[in-house]
Amino acid sequence: MSGIGGALVPAKTMTIEPTELEKAVLLKVSGRMDAENAHEFEQACEQWITRGAKHLIADLGDLQYVSSMGLRSFLAVAQKLQSVSGSLILCRLNGLPRQVFELTRLIGLFPVFDTEQQAIATL
Amino acid sequence: MDPAARRLTLPAHVESVAVFRDFVRSQAVAAEVPAEEFDKLDLVLEEILINIARYAYVPGTGEAEVVVASDGPGRLSVEIADWGNAFNPLDVEPPDFSRGLAERPIGGLGVFLIRSLVSSIDYRREADRNILSFVFPATDSGGPG
Prior knowledge:
heterodimer, A: alpha/beta, six-stranded mixed beta sheet, 4 helices, 35% helix, globular, B: alpha+beta
């Protein structure tokens, strides 16, 4: 804990843990995706796309926070994958990130599943 | 603003957002804003401050100022000012939700999110300053108005 006046200040930034699956790459995204680090998610996805990945599954179960800069990254990656007949699939979207995707109605533009198993089963 | 209001002025950089966030959070704790609202408060601040950092000035110049006061139990009154080009973010058109993935513009979502998460939002141009004021958290569950 740090910060002014004992406020609970988020120390955790974003981490991305990739796992190669048979038909997709699973990216477990944890922490906080904001203006300072959203480009890291986009870059990580682009590296997998460059290596031939068609389907990326973003496990967002431990994502606590996403701002509009993060939404831009999700949208940019999804558009890129759609142009190569691939997809960006979201799973375990909850809390504030789910609320943000719902408020901006982006949720209807992505395949969204409760679990990664459900996401994998659609491929 | 309330004479008990707290004020912080910093360079209008992306790197200042975390310092403003800590400052406003400390006021939110003092005003007994529920802790589960803190991430939404962070989001509103980030969206407004990033807009100022990117568009109000020649990049790398200028300042932003945040003034915070209690607005009754569990509520904060916030004013965010800059000395940049006159710009009313409330004039920004909402995103076009009818477009599909391929045509959905990347961007324009920040102002929409701000309006969705606060109450009594107002813009005024005062001398050479843009001032955006709002109350947090939102007092109703409705969409942006």
